[in-house]
Amino acid sequence: MKIRVRSTKLGKVRFVGHRDMARIWDRTLRRLGIPVAFTQGFTPRPRIAFGLALPMGAESLAEYVDVEIDTHHVDGHDLDLDGLPVAWSELLPDGIDVTVVDVPDVPVESLQESVTSCTWELWSPEITGEDLAAAVALLDADELLVERERKRERRTDDIRPLLLDLRPDHTGHRLVAELATTGRALRPAELCTLAFPHVDPLDVRVLRTHQWTSHDDDRREVLPLPVSVAAPDREVGA
Q1: What is the pLDDT of residue 76?
Q2: Which of 7, 30, 39, 168 has a Cα-to-Cα distance from 174 of 20 to 30 A?
Q3: What is residue 203's DSSP assignment?
Q4: Are 14 and 59 contacting, i.e. CB atoms less than 8 angstroms apart?
């Protein structure tokens, strides 16, 4: 049986790397007493699959983990899915909160394969309203060329097809960007370099708010937040 988990990553914990995050999830699963299934072979590994890696220093309201449960040791009906988000969050570091736990009704694609785009918010005290307007104008370009290093070779790629949407948020202080994840995905830092050339990308805060999948031209979130679960407050410049 597989459970799919949605969580946040906010505040200082944004500087915890992907490998350390994997250890955190493994440790908390053991403390919760949830028996995780293991792979077969000489070196069995827990069947825990993570979604798209979050860039170091970025925050998120929509991180995902798939966990396969060993049903020989626990009946799926015995899992308290309603109480699991709170119990799990209490064991996680500050800034990581489980918001949704779901058992898919049908087999689902891996997170790495099914996510087609992500929505991001970018902001900095150095970014003005005029800067946001100039950034949105990037959508009018026929092509946007960036230099990338691949296998120790410098290449120039047109990233315009990866730029799906750009707009100011409702406060007028943040840039909301939807970036495709298919192929050679566009990283938020690359967008910062294009959109705000006068600002060091390290000075731009980045927040992933959504991960999207597509089914028959219908775009949907991997796991939407229930109405009863409010997204954490995030003040401008916080």
Answers
A1: 53
A2: 7
A3: G
A4: yes
Query: 176 φ, ψ to 5°?
Result: -100, 125
Closest Cα to residue 29, out of 48, 8, 57, 50?
Answer: 48
CATH number of 2-108: 3.30.70
pTM, 2 dp: 0.89
Which amino acid belongs to residue 77? H
CATH class of 114-221: alpha beta
Which residue type occupies 102? D
| b/e sequence 147-182, b meaning 16+ C-beta within 10 Å | eeeeeeeeeebebbebbbebeeeeeebbbbbbbbbe
Residues 6+ apart with CB under 8 A from 10: 59, 60, 61, 95, 96, 232, 234
CATH topology of 2-108 equal to that of 114-221? yes
With a CB cutoff of 8 Å and minimum separation 6, the contacts of 58 are: 14, 188, 206, 207, 208
Tens digits of per-residue pLDDT, 156-212?
899 999 999 999 999 999 999 999 998 788 999 999 999 999 999 999 999 999 999
Task: Give the least confident one: 108-117, 139-148, 221-230.
Answer: 221-230
